[in-house]
Each structure stands twice: as C-alpha cells, then as structure tokens.
Amino acid sequence: MAEKSKKDEAQAQFKKMQRAEDGKKAMTEYEAEAIATRAKTERLKALRLARDASAPPPAPKKVAVKKTVTKTSPTGARITTKTAAKTTVKKAPAKARGKVGTKTGTLSDWMEAEKASGRNN
User: What share of the chain in percent tops pLDDT 70?
Assistant: First the structure.
C-alpha cells in the first residue's frame, strides 16, 4: 500500500498535463483580451482627439455684474444708484491659473526657519 500503483501515477501525470494545458489556454485568452482592450483604447483616443480638434474651444463664460454706486449730493445726503449690468469674462480660479509670486521652499529651509525662531521640536 505504501507504493503508488502505476494507474495512480498515470492519473497524477495526466492531471498535471491537464493543468498545464489549462494554464496555457487561460494565458492566451488573457493576452488576447489585453490586446483587444489596448486596440479599443487606441481607437477611442483617436476618435476623441479628432472630435476635440474639429470642435472650436468653448468661449469663456460671461457673467453679468451689477454695480452699485454711492455718491454724496451737495447737501450731504448719500445717493445709491445701480448701474446697468456689465458683462465681464470670468477668470479661472487662482488654483487653476497658478499662484504668481509665491515661493516654494524646501523642507530643510522650513526646518531651519523654525529652529531660528526658537522652536525645539
């Protein structure tokens, strides 16, 4: 009973070969799906770039702004009037434009400044 019979060895060898074939088959399917996905992505990217190239860029948004003007009359009374709506172009937020005139220091510069200011930690 301690030894395996030839039949058991043949079955084990057959199962091993079967698993190897299944692995090869699964790998070829995986690679084929990956190739198809890359081709689809390239096609969609080309379509998107063509669409973006053919369409003009969107115009900046215009916002109506009402101004209130406060004037002082010759008698000293304050007169508040609203002027006609003025159309202005809305700028992109500062975060999108990038901050002008700000310096970005290094960590070591910051640590030196903290130490110079008397910070111990």
Answer: 74
Q: pLDDT of 50-86, one tens digit each?
A: 998 888 777 777 777 667 777 777 777 777 766 655 5
Backbone φ, ψ for residue 82 (5° rounding): -105, 135
Q: How far is CA 9 from CA 1, 16, 18, 38, in A?
A: 14, 11, 14, 44
Residue 101 has what DSSP assignment? S
| CA gap 82, 65 in Å, rounded | 11
Read off the pTM.
Answer: 0.39
For the chain, helix, strand, coil in percent to 5 are 50, 15, 35
